[in-house]
Design goal:
By secondary structure, the chain is α/β, with parallel strands linked by helices. It is built from 18 helices and 17 strands.
Length: 478
């Protein structure tokens, strides 16, 4: 009986050849290795922000703020970019805020939290300005910083006459000074800060938090008129789409259907596919291909970004252009690993006598910046940056996770992985493993070679200064 049982149990090993078992074991080992690698990567660079012990429902504003501060301080331990001096400043700032938290307005409390977060001075580790304003009444206009001017690009019905006006003062405070009052609350570079600070300028509660109680707007119109108006604040709408800086130049992007947008003249190339986050178009008159990468994540067009990267590389190579123009002015980041095969191939496609133009702005951030570095590293002599300074330094911390505080709704992120695009990165648990081992990227700089800011005049006329600069070079034979 025992012999029969053993024979039955061992039948698969006798009937199935040994090499099939070996192949199956290899597959399982490979899968197990990758599963372990994924788990290890999450633990190392994406630790979930576990809150402190359950604190219960607060019975007062003072208790709610105290709970938020405990959560805020607790989560900070996941931030790896801070040295000992930063940690000491952070801890002291939290202690100081705890003493006055109960006496602050909601906006003052959130702005104070953002200011403590700014001690980290890392673009990825900032508070979320879009979340900060989400629950507050806001003015019925939306503004965007364009080459030194704050212009109104959105308005609710009844205020459409304000579209296109330049906002020069809030009360008696020049717009530049109003922006500067918010600057200590956010880390990173000015180019990135300028892309989202208009959100706070449109929110009376935050203006009051920086000492601007008079929300009379002084406006300058293109026909020379100057006006001063006071606008009513509008309560937030449930279900409204959150708006990011990259959305503002896209007239079709609105929070709710009733918003009205400035409509640029004509059909400028960079606005011609608003429903696609990535696409390309041949420009035969320049012997060029224009490649638009507005995001490093799969969009809703029906084609995944990895599929697009493979198809675009092959089809652009078949066109064999002497010029490739990569537009990342609206690319706020995503997964940098997906676009690498295309970025490193651009120089080979245009050949040694070709050119690769990389279009940038303050909205070019995170993976968008790494894309630039990948392309420039692969073809440094052929690559030129065109437009405006990028939205971060070449040394930054990323990865990590977003977290929200339980009562105020304040949202920020901590960063756990270091990138140094100029010197390289060292340290197995400091540098994300992809950038450390698989495709390290090093460039001398990502400075602008051809300045071409998007001004209001160019935008409303449907012109693109960056494309115009490239055309002048290519057709004029610089």
């Amino acid at each position: 009986m025992l012999a029969q049982t053993l024979r039955l149990l061992t039948a698969p090993f006798r009937l199935i050849p040994w090499y099939v078992w070996l192949a199956a074991a290899a597959v399982l080992a490979w899968l197990g290795r990758n599963i372990l690698l994924i788990i290890a990567t999450i633990i190392a660079f994406h630790p979930i922000p576990v809150p402190p012990i359950f604190q219960g429902e607060p019975d007062s504003i003072a208790e709610a703020r105290a709970q938020d501060l405990r959560h805020f301080h607790h989560v900070r331990r996941n931030e790896r970019s801070m040295d000992d001096a930063m940690k000491a400043r952070f801890d002291a700032a939290v202690d100081a805020l705890e003493l006055e938290a109960a006496d602050l307005t909601d906006a003052e409390f959130q702005l104070a939290l953002a200011g403590i977060q700014a001690i980290i001075d890392n673009g990825h580790s900032n508070a979320s300005a879009t979340r900060m304003v989400q629950s507050f009444p806001r003015l019925p206009i939306r503004t965007h910083w364009m080459d030194g001017e704050l212009r109104i690009l959105r308005a609710l019905p009844g205020h459409e006459r304000l579209l296109g006006a330049e906002l020069t003062h809030i009360g008696d405070v020049p717009v530049e000074e109003a922006m500067a009052r918010f600057r200590p609350s956010f880390g990173g570079v000015d180019a990135w800060f300028n892309s989202f600070v208009p959100l706070l300028l449109e929110t009376p509660a935050y203006l009051a938090a920086v000492g601007i109680d008079d929300t009379t707007l002084r406006l300058r119109f293109d026909d020379g008129r100057v006006d001063a108006i006071t606008l009513p604040a509008v309560d937030p709408v449930d279900g409204a789409r959150r708006f990011f800086s990259a959305d503002f130049v896209m007239p079709t992007s609105v929070e709710t259907d009733d918003w009205l947008s400035v409509q640029p003249a004509g059909d400028p190339l960079y606005l011609s596919n608003p429903d696609h986050g990535y696409w390309f178009e041949a420009l035969p008159d320049l012997d060029a291909v224009y490649l638009n990468l507005s995001q490093n994540l799969t969009d809703e067009s029906g084609e995944s970004l990895p599929d697009f990267v493979g198809r675009a590389g092959d089809e652009i190579a078949a066109i064999a252009p002497s010029v490739i123009i990569v537009d990342q002015r609206l690319n706020g980041g995503g997964d940098l690993t997906i676009t690498r095969p295309l970025m490193v191939r651009l120089g080979d496609i245009v050949g040694p006598d070709g050119r690769v133009y990389l279009l940038t702005s303050g909205g070019t951030f995170s993976a968008g910046i790494v894309n630039l570095a990948m392309a420039k590293e692969a073809a440094p002599e052929q690559t030129r940056l065109v437009g405006e300074p990028i939205g971060d330094r070449l040394q930054f911390w990323a990865e990590g996770w977003w977290y929200s505080l339980p009562n105020s709704g304040f949202r920020a992120r901590y960063s756990t992985g270091y990138y140094d695009l100029q010197n390289g990165c060292e340290g197995a648990f400091i540098c994300p493993w992809g950038s450390l081992h698989i495709f390290p990227v090093i460039v001398d700089d990502l400075d602008i070679d051809i300045p071409a800011p998007m001004s209001w005049e160019a935008y409303v006329a449907g012109r693109d200064p960056a494309m115009e600069a490239i055309r002048t070079i290519e057709q004029g034979g610089e």
